Amino acid sequence: MIHPGSISLYARFMSQPLPLPPFHARFQSFEETADGSAGPARLKALREELARRGIDGYIVPRADAHQNEYVPPAEERLAWLTGFTGSAGLLIVLPDVAALFVDGRYTLQAAQQVDGTAFTVVPLAEISPDRWLEANLPAGTSLSFDPWRTTLDGREKYARAVAEARGVLVAVPEDPIAAIWPDRPPPPAAPVRLHDGTIAGESIADKLTRVRAALTKAKVDAALITDPHATAWLFNIRGGDVAHTPLPLSWSLVPREGQPLLFIDPAKLSNSVRDALAPAADIRPETDLEPALAAFAPGKTLRLDQATAPVHLAEVVERAGGTVAKGADPVSALKARKNAAEIAGMTAAHVRDGAALTRFLHWFDAAAATGSLTEIDAVEALETFRAANGDLADVSFPTISGAGPNGAIVHYRVTRASNRTIGTGELFLLDSGAQYPDGTTDVTRTIAVGTPSADMRRHFTLVLKGHIALARAVFPEGTTGAQLDPLARQYLWAAGLDFEHGTGHGVGAVLSVHEGPARISKLGTVALEAGMILSNEPGFYKAGAYGIRIENLLLVAPRAVDGAEKKCLAFETLTLAPIDRRLIEVSLLDAAEVLWMDAYHARVAAEVGPLMDDDTRAWLAKATAPLA
């Protein structure tokens, strides 16, 4: 239900002088979070520390011990060292070069944030870190890595590359960056809360039964759960240790038989939360993790996820006489397949979120026309419209608010230094999401400000055609994201265009907005299954001019197909917000695409319209009018 005050609050916003009503962003900052100018001095200090230890080079991943996407301030080593604030990256420091590897989302951003005299930005599309090491690591060089922040897969890649270069790979258990970071923030200690059982849809006991069945099938004695998202899902808990994801940092050890162990800072647990969890788990402080693991491991086979488990913990198991069975975390696949209660919660959250976004889009059309609206104004306004629902817990990631050329920076984060006025004749790219008590959202809309050019309309329509193709896809069980990815790119490819990011990522239910194991991308090797929720977000980016992206979230659901010889799946769209008709070149759409677009807009009007005031309902009627 929409908060009773939201419509009257919206009306007050609309009555204020534009473009600066009393908007506020509580959950995101526009300050610079890292200092690129300090990079050269910090890099020099790191090299001196490595030399003191007799080591030539060091690998600095953008990771904590859990491989979280969002990490607490105390774990922002890469940002502190280089000034690069993207959510993915890796630095290799050698005596004469420091190579910062970033994917296509961050190529432009990294070049702007780091000091180019100290750091060399290397696009991953051109070369991977291991191949770069093979070509650039001098023979005899000792290259070190952090065994707490390096995965089993990562170590294997580095080992092969270093061996090929005839170097020496060395684990350094004591973090050298900690030794040169004098004002490092303390670890987080946010309180843990119980996740509502009616929203979780499954008890801890039932989840543990399913995990144990997976362990039995895999013929392992236990699983060490190193991903705190998995532990949060398994024990129906949520927290606040990292930004934008309701995550309590924790570990768990789930044996095939017997009570599981939950390792978490006891200061995070109230008496009531501890009492509720006690029947399900032996709760211990995180400092007990290594001795407990060493005590359990002798003669046992433990499942560790090679993509998230730190090398250090695998070595603890092996030194104690246990066997590491590498493989996917058994919770990962279970968590990705949402149950009926989780789907209901996500669906309800998207209706409320769509209402907030629709109110924003109505307001934005008037505010942008004044010529004085900025990117930060838009972020603050959208967050305030979402907060007016009365149940906004957080944004699910920092809002991407890119006007004109800033929209071409795929994961642009506006700061007070980069803040730009949204000009007439430009495109405005707005990628945002929210965390609600019952669901997580992620939606992108590209908006025309003034009259769009013919190229803008053509590029937008090519992106839209790919978005529709994926949304309409029907496919047999067992189909992977990599097989579906070309559907979203085909029209761009035919025009000699493409985008340098995945088409879609998994989304958690009141958890991470980026969730594995499935994704729709060239690298998406996991089959899609009913109950999974993924994004559909093809785009096009004209450097220095504009960016285009259209994103909805999709639910994978069974689909009956007459005469089918295999069980089939299809997508159901969860996101409800108008797509800018002013940017659609209707002549480029076929009849089926027009039908899909009109049906989607009719659904938006039917489900979101009743939650609007009269003025916004009238605006929405025009924004969702049939194309034909």
UniProtKB/TrEMBL annotation:
A Pfam family this chain is assigned to: Peptidase_M24_C
InterPro entries for the chain: Creatin/AminoP/Spt16_N (IPR029149), Creatinase/aminopeptidase-like (IPR036005), Creatinase_N (IPR000587), Pept_M24 (IPR000994), Pept_M24B (IPR033740), Peptidase_M24_C (IPR032416), X-Pro_aminopeptidase_P (IPR050422)
Domain Peptidase M24, residue spans: 345-556
Keywords noted in UniProt: Aminopeptidase, Hydrolase, Metal-binding, Protease
Limits of the Creatinase N-terminal domain: 42-165
Cellular component aspect of the GO annotation: cytoplasm
Family annotation (CDD domains): APP
Segments forming domain Peptidase M24 C-terminal: 568-627
GO molecular function: metal ion binding; metalloaminopeptidase activity
Family: Belongs to the peptidase M24B family.
Name of the protein: Aminopeptidase
